[in-house]
Structure formats: structure tokens, C-alpha cells
Design brief:
Elements (H helix, E strand, L loop, with lengths): L5 H16 L7 H8 L3 H14 L2 E4 L4 E4 L1 H12 L2 H17 L2 E8 L2 E8 L14 E3 L4 H7 L4 H7 L17 H14 L2 E4 L6 E9 L5 E10 L11 H17 L6
Antiparallel strand pairs: 1-2, 3-4, 3-8, 4-5, 6-7, 7-8
Length: 259
């Protein structure tokens, strides 16, 4: 990598890896060239170099290419380093300084929201969502912030019947049409809201964190004390604004893009 001319080649090689990573199966070199808008000769050269380095596997019988063991090893190393939590911790710390309320980082795990990180103000209220806790994703604001950015077919697959809709407090969506309505409104608004769906007397707002393909990889939420006899329809934009800013910052930190 001594010459500046190596940089475009590196970028093209990374583009090939990203394209292969986004496909459900192996891809022909001609398809790679067509989708990336590159000459076939260039693509064959890039693929040969990536094969030699172990990042791509050539399937000669199929005349196609797929990700290799080197790509898997990089992904495994990424996960071992807990990068999402490390990148999110200072973001959440700044968020609680702005709001004075507990902040969480959550990810989707099937149809559950899994909490990876929690940052609290000096005198926090006790909440159920500790690190490692899993909750039905349709109930917490963080879960729905992520669900709202999934394809409708994937949401339907996660919640195929009424039995998939766990009820904790008597609030929240209890079937797919109700969930779809919430997700449509929340995606349009830009943030999700939860009022006593998880724990009576607590509410939260959440915003999604996206990767470079605009796929939801996490959500940041702000949780606070709130009590009303029946769901009162508040949206808390004054708390949503700093939560959205935190999610946008984390999206940038992981080289993603906000939708």
C-alpha cells in the first residue's frame, strides 16, 4: 500500500466483499462486474487477489464466488472485541448527561430485544431492563424502533400468530395489524414510544441505529418514570430529540447511514 494508486483498488476490493456479503448465495463474476459497474477484467483480478488472501472462495463447478474463511475470521474477531458496546458507551454517557434518565443499547435477537448496555444517572430509578435481559421486541420502544426498519415480510415471519404477542402489563399490540400500525407511525415519526408496556410506571422513547445498508443493528432508548391510568398518547419529543441525536452519532461511529 505504498502508492496512492492502491487506494482505488482497495476500495473496489471492499466493494466486492460487501456485495458478496449481501447475497444469499455464491455470485458469478459477471454479476459482480455488472452490479459494481466495473470491467470484467478488473473484477477477475480483484477476485483472484481476494481468493489468494482467503477472503473469497472460488467454486469452479458453479463458476461462482462466495465469501471465504478469512472473511469469517474477521467477523469473528469483530464480535470478540465487543465493538458495538465499546462504541456506544460514550454515546450513552453523553445522552444521560443531557436527559438525566437511564439509557439503554439493545439489539434484535429473533423476536426479542436483548439489552447489551445500560448507562444510568447518579440517582437512577430501578428498571427491569438490565444488561442481558431479553424482552418481547413488540413491547419496548427499542424493539419496535428496530422492527420498524425491517421488511414487512420479516416482521410477519417473526410474529406469525397471536401466540407470538406476549402481554406483560395489558398494554401494547396484541396482533400483527396492531403492530404494523404502530411500526408505520413510528417509522414515519422517527422514534418509537412505549408507555407502561414493559413495566407499570415507566415509559421510554427509542431511535434506531443503522448499518451502511440501512439495516437496523441496534437501538438506543431513554427510560423514565411516567404513570397514567390508561395510555395517554404522549410522544415526549423533548426526550426523543437527544435520543435521536445519540442514535445518529452511533450510526456514524459504526460507518452507517441514517435513513
Amino acid at each position: 500500500m505504498g502508492a496512492s494508486s492502491d487506494v482505488p483498488a482497495l476500495r473496489r476490493g471492499l466493494a466486492v466483499l460487501r456485495l458478496l456479503a449481501g447475497k444469499a448465495g455464491p455470485v458469478a463474476a459477471a454479476a459482480v462486474a455488472r452490479e459494481l459497474g466495473l470491467p470484467r477484467s478488473t473484477v477477475y483480478h480483484l477476485l483472484a487477489e481476494l481468493v489468494d488472501a482467503g477472503f473469497v472462495t472460488h467454486l469452479p463447478e458453479d463458476r461462482r464466488y462466495a465469501l471465504g474463511l478469512g472473511a469469517f475470521e474477521l467477523g469473528s474477531a469483530y464480535l470478540r472485541h465487543d465493538p458495538l458496546e465499546r462504541l456506544a458507551r460514550p454515546v450513552l454517557s453523553r445522552l444521560i448527561e443531557r436527559t438525566g434518565h437511564t439509557a439503554h443499547l439493545g439489539v434484535l435477537h429473533g423476536r426479542e430485544a436483548l439489552y447489551l448496555l445500560r448507562e444510568q444517572p447518579p440517582h437512577p430509578h430501578t428498571v427491569v431492563t438490565d444488561v442481558g435481559v431479553r424482552l418481547p421486541a413488540h413491547l419496548p420502544a427499542s424493539g419496535r424502533a428496530m422492527l420498524a426498519h425491517l421488511p414487512p415480510a420479516q416482521v410477519r415471519a417473526l410474529f406469525p400468530t397471536r401466540d407470538a404477542f406476549v402481554d406483560r402489563t395489558g398494554r401494547g399490540p396484541v396482533h400483527l395489524p396492531a403492530l404494523r400500525g404502530l411500526l408505520t407511525a413510528e417509522r414515519r415519526r422517527g422514534w418509537a414510544v412505549e408507555d407502561g408496556y414493559v413495566t407499570p410506571g415507566f415509559a421510554s422513547v427509542a431511535a434506531v441505529v443503522l448499518d451502511h445498508t440501512e439495516h437496523p443493528v441496534a437501538a438506543i432508548s431513554t427510560t423514565f418514570r411516567h404513570h397514567c391510568e390508561s395510555e395517554c398518547g404522549q410522544l415526549w419529543p423533548e426526550l426523543a430529540e437527544p435520543t435521536l441525536a445519540a442514535a445518529a452519532e452511533l450510526t456514524t461511529r459504526i460507518s452507517g447511514r441514517r435513513s
